[in-house]
């Protein structure tokens, strides 16, 4: 039988169909975690029949010094990635990660060094009091970075890494003092997982301001939008914190584009709580977020070798 051309303009809009058949709309298929693996990473991939093909997640270490080296290499690579994305903004921007050997110390980038030139040997080890330790690079660090990150590491001892810089779209959306809407599948990373710090008190040069930011983050959120300032993200690994950051910056761009379209008469469709919660249960798992960072790390290795590991 020959195909028949259909005039789509003659068809009623989808919303009209749903309104005419409310039972069909109400019975729309909803996914559930029932019957799925209790390991979120395993939900995301399929291997061979024999079960010998796996997607590798966060590595485990028996040797804390080996873990320290791994942590530092990923931290340096994260700055290379930020440089690649054009996040550099003068003296601003910092990522910290707890030292596996001395958990009350953390590694951090020096101030006034471009992200793209950060290597392992340029990373500073910072003491709990905020001083540069002799075991790392002997370079000055960012004062605001110390106040913000030290407060977060104290308030949330389970978090291993924190990231903040003045990315373009994060800054632009921050002026509204609002969380992003859950508009896309990727945005479910931030469902019930974002705070907004609504007070801009100037450049952070006092410990009280860092403490206020940490308190705003709360006991469970991984990210915060700092009004009139930018984005702050955290994680159990450098990779998790850095992926959260780049994903949130991109979604700030999506939000800005969506708001512009709304101003011209289009209507936003926000993902409902049930679907967002279901999706977030997989996307927000720390290992899954880390694995989202792995392709960027591995691409850097292919493109640049191991220049940041020295």
UniProtKB/TrEMBL annotation:
Gene3D superfamilies: Class II aldolase/adducin N-terminal domain (3.40.225.10). GO terms for molecular function: actin filament binding. Coiled coil: none annotated. Residues 73-256 form the Class II aldolase/adducin N-terminal domain. It comes from the Eukaryota. Pfam families: Aldolase_II. One of its GO terms (cellular component) is cytoskeleton. This is BY PROTMAP: gi|647401067|emb|CDR47029.1| RHTO0S13e04896g1_1 [Rhodosporidium toruloides].
């Amino acid at each position: 039988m020959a195909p028949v051309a259909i005039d789509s303009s003659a068809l009623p809009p989808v919303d009209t169909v749903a309104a005419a058949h409310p039972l069909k709309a109400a019975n729309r298929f909803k996914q559930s975690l029932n019957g799925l693996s209790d390991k979120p990473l395993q939900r995301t991939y399929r291997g061979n029949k024999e079960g010998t093909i796996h997607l590798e997640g966060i590595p485990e270490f028996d040797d804390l010094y080996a873990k320290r080296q791994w942590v530092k290499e990923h931290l340096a690579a994260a700055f290379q990635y930020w440089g690649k994305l054009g996040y550099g903004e003068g003296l601003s921007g910092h990522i910290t990660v707890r030292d596996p050997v001395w958990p009350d110390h953390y590694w951090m980038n020096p101030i006034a060094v471009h992200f793209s030139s950060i290597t392992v040997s340029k990373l500073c080890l910072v003491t709990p009091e905020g001083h540069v330790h002799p075991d790392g690079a002997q370079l000055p660090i960012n004062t605001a970075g110390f106040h913000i990150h030290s407060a977060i590491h104290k308030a949330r001892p389970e978090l291993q890494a924190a990231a903040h810089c003045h990315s373009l779209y994060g800054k632009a959306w921050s002026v509204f003092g609002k969380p992003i809407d859950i508009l896309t599948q990727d945005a479910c990373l931030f469902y019930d997982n974002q705070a907004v710090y609504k007070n801009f008190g100037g450049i952070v040069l006092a410990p009280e301001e860092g403490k206020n930011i940490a308190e705003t983050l709360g006991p469970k959120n991984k990210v915060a939008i700092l009004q009139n300032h930018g984005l702050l993200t955290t994680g159990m690994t450098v990779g998790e914190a850095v992926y959260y950051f780049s994903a949130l910056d991109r979604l700030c761009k999506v939000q800005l584009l969506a708001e512009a379209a709304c101003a011209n008469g289009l209507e936003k469709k926000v993902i409902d709580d049930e679907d967002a919660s279901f999706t977030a249960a997989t996307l927000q798992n720390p290992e899954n977020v880390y694995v989202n960072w792995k392709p960027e790390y591995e691409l850097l290795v292919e493109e640049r070798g191991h220049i940041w590991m020295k």
